[in-house]
Amino acid sequence: MSWILQLIINAGVLLLLAYIHPGVKVRSFGTAVGVALVIGILNATIGFLLRFTLNLMTLWLLSFLVRLFVTAIVIWLTDKLFSGFQLRSFGTAVLVACVLAIVGTLLAY
């Protein structure tokens, strides 16, 4: 799948979560696209380093949980970078990470 299409879908998922869940606030679709882009960039750089380190410490036995936790950290960092994107708590970041993982998995098949 094209990364632009995946970016737009992730932005749509963020907007849907903002509509459904009171702990997520997104100002506009443009903000959602920017947030999705930054989440992707941070996941590819900082997230990769964190995932590798944590997976090495757990001997790759908890790789799914490590990926989920690191993605939640990246989403929480993105919340701090954007003024138009707000999360109520770290638990909300975990929820967003779960939903993005589920949607990404469904669209991969």
TrEMBL record:
- Give the transmembrane region(s): 32-52, 59-78, 90-108
**Which InterPro entries does the UniProt entry name for this protein?**
Phage_holin_4_2
Highest taxon of the lineage: Bacteria
Name of a matching Pfam family: Phage_holin_4_2
Q: Does the keyword Transmembrane apply?
A: yes
Q: Which UniProt keywords apply?
A: Membrane, Transmembrane, Transmembrane helix
* Name of this chain's protein: Phage holin family protein
